[in-house]
Design goal:
The complex is a heterodimer of chains A (302) and B (324).
Chain A lengths: L1 H5 L13 H39 L3 H6 L12 H9 L2 H32 L5 H13 L2 H15 L5 H24 L4 H9 L4 H12 L1 H17 L2 H7 L8 H8 L7 H21 L1 H8 L1 H5 L1
Helix pairs in contact in A: 2-14, 4-14, 5-8, 5-11, 5-13, 6-8, 7-12, 8-11, 8-12, 9-10, 13-14
Chain B lengths: L5 H6 L16 H35 L20 H8 L1 H31 L7 H13 L2 H11 L6 H5 L12 E3 L2 E3 L1 H28 L2 H9 L4 H29 L3 H7 L8 H10 L4 H32 L1
Antiparallel strand pairs in B: 1-2
The chains are: A mainly alpha (302), B mainly alpha (324).
């Protein structure tokens, strides 16, 4: 105890000034005191301003933008841009497609990844160690290489324009990472609880369903959100598979395709990007803590 | 759920080998292995069908004269040739796109990690509104790439983009290959695309580095303060040595992701104005030129170059990262 009391005393050294090296210390501290708020301000501006601008632009008429491109605040707020983009430009359909794709991807990913993660976490089976390697390879695998044969295959099967093919690809891309994220969590579930369940007569699947899953809700949420974000944001495969059928466009694809056309006003398209961005940002911040923990598990191991 | 206390269950864990095997003539261990394979098999099947098999097929296509018109005739036992590779390698466009990809990747990776490091250091200590700043920093990474690329496109537009209203004379950031900055010739579009990359992915580095920073034991830093180390000395000799591992990991991850990145460049410039990276070229060959073989050949070369870089990297820096 006495040591704990004495240690804090040397820390406020700046009060007692040893001559030469302290001056450098003082200069650096002074510089940092100015620099730090500056860095924080710049970072916040650089990241937040474009999105603020996005929302502001989506709320005005195109005439205003052309007459006064430098203004941030609209003279007259209007929601007609949103009505236009959702109705006439068909974004409601695109949102429906994106929602179908994302929800189906999440459901099937979890359905596949939960047993897989449980097996890797708990069961000793042939090839368990090699499985990790496969997951890492898929995680790092360039999508553009996969795009070629899948494009050819889907063309041959006539699956281009169908959402099912797209969902399949998204599942394959998220399942390995989902297994990895879930496995880390399952390993932290005490084994004794499961054993108690199995003594009570639960089979393996029943143990997973009744014991492991309820204990792993945060990890399930994080994994589900991860695959939701992938499916909602993805662009390359949507472009390759769906571009010829406008009814099947996802929101991402729809915005990218319409962005090139001259007839649609930029402010209307900006409303489209708000519609595309908002769900993801809301979902992310509703669960941010869960998700960042999931995303950085690798960093904390080092 | 009422059951025996966990302690008594633990004694049941590993029955002696002498115990009669439950189930039809199998040991518990065998049963376990079997169950494991059953449970993992859906994962394996989907990765095999959608990733591994297509990869093999892509390699095969690279050695065949495949076009969408004749694709049904190009079977597994079709005619194999090196023509795609000789054709692709003979085109100057391929080599310049490889160089562009490399510049784009190295600069994008380095910048995003450097900014991420600065951001993590600045946000390390608590201050009022930190949660909000942190949230704001993460948005570029979380937001859909199509939306942010369109946003940049509008903001940088020479006619009505807000950035150009701040400048003396409008700059066509995304469509101009060369321009002068302070009298120096610079690749405008390429730099813009790199800036986009840094802006969009520094939050990724920020997350990793911040997590590591917050897991560092505070004693070392405190001891250095007591010893009279200045902030820059503490960063150089105390904090940075403990961050090298995560920076090395980030370098590999960002390098791999950026080197094969398609969306960002395609959406911003479409590969024009000196920003044609290999992945965009692969896409162009696949869709507009309808030359599947050449497209696959370039993708394979890109993957091989990537692997070579990774091996070199791990040779030179892998050992160092292990030690620190």
């Amino acid at each position: 105890m006495s040591q704990a009391v004495t240690t804090p005393t040397p820390i406020p050294t700046p009060a007692s000034p040893p001559p030469a090296p302290m001056s450098r210390d003082r200069v650096e501290r002074a510089v940092l005191r100015v620099l730090k708020p500056l860095v924080i301000t710049v970072l916040t501006l650089v990241t937040a301003f474009p999105f603020f601008y996005m929302v502001m632009l989506s709320l005005r008429d195109i005439q205003e933008l052309i007459l006064d491109p430098g203004s941030l605040w609209p003279d007259r707020f209007t929601l007609s841009t949103y009505a236009d983009v959702l109705g006439r430009q068909g974004f409601l359909t695109f949102i429906g497609n994106s929602a179908i794709v994302a929800v189906a991807s999440v459901a099937v990913t979890l359905l596949i990844a939960v047993p897989g993660a449980y097996a890797v976490a708990r069961l000793r089976f042939f090839g368990r160690r090699q499985v990790h390697f496969l997951f890492l390879a898929v995680y790092l695998f360039p999508a553009i290489v996969l795009a070629i044969p899948l494009f050819v295959l889907f063309t041959m099967l006539g699956l281009r324009g169908s959402l099912v093919g797209l969902i399949l690809v998204y599942i394959a891309q998220t399942v390995p990472v989902a297994v990895y994220m879930l496995r880390n969590y399952f390993e932290s579930v005490p084994q004794s609880v499961e054993e108690a369940a199995s003594i009570d007569g639960c089979g393996r699947m029943e143990t997973i369903w009744r014991v492991v899953l309820p204990l792993s809700k945060p990890a399930l949420m994080a994994t589900g959100l991860y695959s939701f974000m992938i499916a909602w944001n993805e662009f390359l495969f949507a472009l390759l598979f769906l571009v010829e059928r406008r009814d099947s466009w996802t929101v991402s694809l729809g915005l990218s395709q319409l962005a090139g056309s001259i007839e649609i006003p930029t402010t209307v398209l900006m409303a489209g990007s708000v519609v595309l961005t908002l769900p993801i940002v809301v979902v992310f911040f509703a669960s941010e803590r869960l998700l960042t923990e999931g995303l950085t598990v690798g960093a904390e191991k080092g | 759920m009422s059951g025996p206390p966990p302690g008594s269950a633990a004694t049941m864990e590993r029955p002696a080998p002498a115990a009669p095997p439950p189930g039809p003539g199998r040991t518990l261990r065998q049963q376990e292995g079997r169950a494991g394979l059953y449970l993992i098999s859906p994962t394996l099947v989907i990765t095999l069908v959608v990733v591994v098999v297509p990869l093999l097929w892509a390699i095969m296509l690279a050695f065949q004269d495949a076009r969408l018109i004749n694709i049904r005739q190009v079977g597994i036992f079709g005619h194999y040739t090196l023509e795609n590779f000789t054709y692709v390698l003979a085109e100057p466009g391929f080599w310049s796109s490889l160089v562009t990809t490399l510049v784009y990747t190295v600069a994008g990776t380095a910048l995003s990690i450097a900014i991420g490091l600065v951001a993590a250091l600045a946000l390390r200590d608590r201050f009022r509104g930190r949660t909000l700043v942190r949230a704001s920093i993460l948005v570029p990474y979380v937001a859909p790439v199509v939306a942010v690329a369109f946003l940049w496109d509008v903001m940088l537009n020479p006619q009505y983009g807000i950035v150009n209203t701040w400048l003396g004379e409008p700059v066509a950031f995304l469509t101009q290959a060369e321009g002068t900055l302070f009298g120096v010739q610079v690749p405008v579009a390429l730099l813009t695309v790199i800036a986009f990359e840094a802006w969009r992915y520094f939050p990724f580095a920020f997350l990793f580095i911040l997590a590591r920073l917050q897991a560092l034991p505070p004693e070392l830093d405190e001891a250095a303060v007591v010893d009279g180390a200045t902030p820059s000395q503490r960063f150089r000799y105390v904090i940075m040595p403990q961050l090298w591992r995560v920076v090395a990991l980030l370098s590999v991850l960002r390098f791999v992701f950026t080197f094969t990145k398609f969306d960002d460049v395609y959406l911003l410039t479409g590969g024009g104005a000196g920003t044609e990276v290999v992945s965009v070229r692969v896409y162009d060959f696949l869709t507009s030129r309808d030359d599947i073989g050449a497209s696959a050949a370039q993708a394979i070369i890109m993957a091989v170059v990537l692997v070579v870089f990774l091996v070199i990297y791990l040779r030179f820096f892998g050992g160092g990262a292990e030690r620190s």
